[in-house]
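Internal tracking record. Fields below are filled automatically when a chain is submitted to the structure queue. Please do not edit lines marked as system-generated. If the sequence contains nonstandard residues, flag them in the REMARKS field before resubmitting.
Queue: standard
Priority: normal
Entity type: single polypeptide chain
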Amino acid sequence: MPSRMLPEWTEQDAILLAWPHEASAWAPWMGAIEATYRNLAAAIARFQPLVVLCRDGDHAAATRAQLTLAGISPTRYRIAEQPFDDTWVRDYGPLARASDGQVELLDFRFNGWGGRHTAERDDGVNAGLAAAGWFATPLLEESRILEGGAVETDGTGTLLLTRRSQFSPGRNDDPDEASAEAWLTEKLGVDRVLWLEHGGLKGDDTDGHVDTLVRFADTTTLIHQHCDDPDDPHYDPLSALAAELTELRTADDQPYALHPLPWPRPQYDEQGERLPATYANFLLVNGGVIAPTYNDAADTEALAVLQRCFPDREVVGVDARTLLLQAGSVHCATMQLPRGALTPEPGED
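SYSTEM-GENERATED OUTPUT FOLLOWS
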């Protein structure tokens, strides 16, 4: 069996979180963001354990107090002391592939979305965890830049990503699509790459990560963010994205089943800048779906769409409005660690 990038619905050991700290970009909103992370951590801990990154011992002690406040048992989390710049662990955490049941973790480079933000410590997190003995499987260092939120796979050889996020300035210097596909195929073990031309959200600084726009529910089903307001600037690009998705074909040359997510009303920061609210930025956990909500009338329908797409999972909403202040949401703040990736604690099976 060829090596394949693992889809998010693969059974997981834990979810990786990086807890906010005063030296991160969250400093102006520490009270609000810690409340959000408490809610997010509690929702995840209902389904499976957490590995929580803390920058040092003092931060670890403060984070344990926050987790206790959230009602999370110490048996449901492990603290990993490791310096990091910011909390968007989706884009610097390890990507996983497997062959014949053997999991391998890939440590791609991360440079703060093309140099927009400081990222040296974030880029060193995976190697630091490996050196500290956290991983039960090889961590393979890669020389190229690849952010976890930029790629979406069905686990059977299909990769989905936006052309803009791959070819934007400051990442890699691929001369053309064929060159990019060659290394994606080699490193992620995919057979084909589906490039998306359209979409994108105001306030997004990732250059159109696919996890803000379109997600696999299974090998034949796509969930996508839709806009039904003709007066909204997102209407044309997201309508073009929806049309583009109707032209895609599965590996068996069949059209995908498409499930549009409702459109939340506009969200703004204190300066009046538009924030990238999207329901597509959900997280799959063992037996569950952790979905962003925005205190919006569309929340109920968004959760219902996800429940229809994942009928065997419990869908849990988490208020993600504070996460938007730094242009992310639930999926951006988390990274799954598949079964077999983590070294067990003493006493664990």
